[in-house]
């Protein structure tokens, strides 16, 4: 979680970012921060901590290219997935679909082989997985095995 938001946006644009997201509670002017990102040619979005309401989306929906739901309290990898995030994902998916938005729905935190299918079934289309993949043994083969297992789970979505 970075604050102040607006001062950092230019740095990320200059560094070549394609998507820039920020926490709504970290800026004084959500609409202005989203506009700054879009004016810089990047896709823009909001990040929601587990206890932060999706209400912030309502008045800026035309500027949202991505909604990112934190499924842990940000800080470090290896935390357990917070199950209530699944309801929040369903709520966000409904908001995106009801408003006909061209907006990705991402989740970050505690995503593993054994919950990635449930996450996708809640309407999420981008997942961040850290410790599930980057664990011992730290080999390309081991990483691939986990990613393949995740892909196999995703192929079962809806079954
Ligand atoms: O930034 C954060 C949490 O602060 C996340 O990106 C996690 O680092 C993802 O790691 P896992 O929860 O998958 O281990």
From TrEMBL:
Species assigned in the record: Skeletonema marinoi
Species lineage: Eukaryota, Sar, Stramenopiles, Ochrophyta, Bacillariophyta
BP terms from Gene Ontology: carbohydrate metabolic process
Enzyme Commission designation: 5.1.3.1
Protein name, per record: Ribulose-phosphate 3-epimerase
Molecular function terms from GO: D-ribulose-phosphate 3-epimerase activity; metal ion binding
Keywords: Isomerase, Metal-binding
Gene3D superfamilies: Aldolase class I
Keyword Oxidoreductase: no
Any one Pfam family match given in the protein's UniProt record, by short name: Ribul_P_3_epim
